[in-house]
Design goal:
The chain is of the alpha/beta class. It has a single domain, classed as Vaccinia Virus protein VP39 (Rossmann fold, 3-Layer(aba) Sandwich), CATH 3.40.50. Helix content is 34%, strand content 20%. It contains 8 helices and 8 strands. Strands 1-4-3-2-5-6-8-7 form an 8-stranded mixed beta sheet, sandwiched between helices. α1 packs across α4 and α3 runs parallel beside α4. The N terminus is likely disordered. InterPro entries: SAM-dependent_MTases_sf, tRNA_(Gua-N-7)_MeTrfase_Trmb, tRNA_methyltr_TrmB_bact. It holds the Pfam family Methyltransf_4. Catalyzes the formation of N(7)-methylguanine at position 46 (m7G46) in tRNA. Belongs to the class I-like SAM-binding methyltransferase superfamily. TrmB family.
Length: 236
């Protein structure tokens, strides 16, 4: 049986590092706001991270894995000021853009992690620490020979579930049909997660429509959502 410690598969990362130059505005907010809002994986102290101390308050914390250019993260943070929003991304320009949104909307409930969320979850997040995990449009690795690189796998979902508090949610969305089917099969097999719906979830009105999703729809790819709740062993 695979364990949480074996979640790292060869070539599998929560997001893929891309070499993209930051704009002048992204560089500016990086210089002025990163020390307050962000941490790199290397900057984190060993052991479990004190999320209350990092955010400066005690509140439910939701982790978004692969926040991209941050537009959805910012809109969700504006809509739910009572929630701590933690965005994990390796792409510096995306984190810079998110900080521009944070600055524009004067948000104090957003923090940023530059690094791989798999390592972060395994090494720095305490069991039961998260109120939710969001994974919107992870890299589909469409070629069949690359499917093994896909993020959503049994050991990964087991790791995520272990970091969710009872009643916490795992929300997935993808526009690739075969990946959606795989996500459904993997999550259904995890005993500590319970599907909130009979299969696919209706698209939540509160999930922002990003440019990426609009493009997928324009190209004829159906977007599917899955929403699972963490249950206790007595509910299995």
């Amino acid at each position: 049986m695979e364990t949480v410690d074996q979640v790292r598969q060869a070539g599998v990362f929560s997001t893929v590092r891309r070499s993209v130059r930051m704009t002048a505005g992204q560089k500016r907010v990086w210089q002025t706001h990163w020390s307050e809002l962000g941490r790199t994986q290397e900057e984190l102290p060993p052991g479990e991270l004190d999320l209350t101390e990092w955010f400066g308050r005690e509140a439910p914390t939701v982790l978004e894995i692969g926040s991209g250019m941050g537009e959805a993260t910012a809109q969700l943070a504006v809509a739910a000021p009572e929630v701590n929003h933690l965005a994990a991304e390796v792409y510096p320009a995306g984190l810079g853009q998110l900080m521009l949104w944070v600055e524009k909307y004067d948000l104090d409930n957003v923090r940023l992690l530059q690094g791989d969320a798999l390592d972060f979850l395994r090494d720095h997040v305490a069991p039961g620490a998260l109120a939710g995990v969001r994974i919107y449009f992870p890299d589909p690795w469409p070629k069949k020979r690359h499917h093994k690189r896909r993020l959503v796998s049994p050991p990964f979902v087991a790791l995520v579930a272990s970091r969710l508090q009872a009643g916490g949610t795992l929300h997935l969305a993808t526009d690739w049909a075969d990946y959606a089917d795989r996500m459904l099969a993997v999550c259904e097999a995890e005993p500590s997660l319970r599907n909130q719906y009979d299969g696919w979830a209706p698209r939540p009105a509160w999930r922002p429509v990003t440019k990426f999703e609009s493009r997928a729809q324009a190209e004829g790819r159906e977007v599917r959502d899955l929403i699972y709740t963490k249950v206790t062993p007595t509910d299995w």
